[in-house]
Amino acid sequence: MMHSEKEETIQIYPGWTEFYNIEVSDKLDAFIKRNRLFDIIFAQQFDRPFLDFMCELANQVRLLAKTKLGARVLSRLLSHKRAMLYFVQPSTRTFISFMNACHILGMKASEIRGTTTSSEVKGESAEDTIRTFSSYVDLIVVRHPEAGFAEKTAWVLNQTERPVSVINGGSGPDQHPTQALLDIYTLERSFEHIGGLDGKKIAMVGDLKRGRTVRSLSYLMKNYKDVTLYFVSPEIFKMKDDIKNFLKKHDIQFYETDDFASVMPIVDAIYMTRIQKEYATTPAKETDIYPTFHFRKKDLANVQSHCIIMHPLPRRYEIEVDVDKDPRAVYWRQERNGMWIRAALIAYLFGVDDEIACEFN
User: For residues 106 and 90, which has the higher predicted lDDT (pLDDT)?
Assistant: First the structure.
């Protein structure tokens, strides 16, 4: 007689509104199962050992994928699993990198790129749509314009008899934890010959108020020693107090300025961002491009020889195309790093990271 595996006990959480209003630091355990991260919702879930581990695992995935035999090994790891990419907010890089991360591991992926192609257009609730997905797949990657939607997806599914892992692929102007992961990976790879990320100075430039990439990356700075942040923005787009209070709590030094030129020569990395016009409450003017906060080819002469220029992309006017030719411009490498770190993250969530590591022993 065959016996099915015992279902894991369903954990009962408070109502959604109550749960959502709990401090992030007090609800991180809700996204852990069997002593491993189960859902990836917040950048605050990552500590230094995990970040170091993910960077090494991403390196291993990248090296294996370069050979035919290694790629074959990777493609067999999750060939029995399925993923849903639920991207109802426009995306190019995040979507393609997740899709290819799934392909690298042999994972079959379905996609929905808008609510008009799902039964939500018929009046189905978002909660019922999410539960429908979980009936067919083992992983849901969510990108949504509403802050907290990925968290709500995990909250809903973790109270059902079939919880599946949820990855936040971008949640409104709030968080983008896997972008923060790939940014850390890019920074560590760029600084591997000069002591790593510890002790470095990083300028974050542009729309810091609504830029979820710089917000998420700022949270991760608590894991590194003696990092200094420079928030460079026009007054209207200054970093919000929640991030600044977090940095103060963890004794992370930061400065705010609108003088980009004064910061360029002293930092080790410049993280450019675009103006997030999709979150504007009033119609944006095409003239609102803030040229003082752009990086031009002539600015290359004002930065250190090892200083890297990053951008989460897409860009508009923030970086001149001529800057692309300089080896310090790493944003295209940064983009590709997203595929490797997301493949590593998925491998970790499904517990096949040991199989990858065995290939290097």
Answer: 106
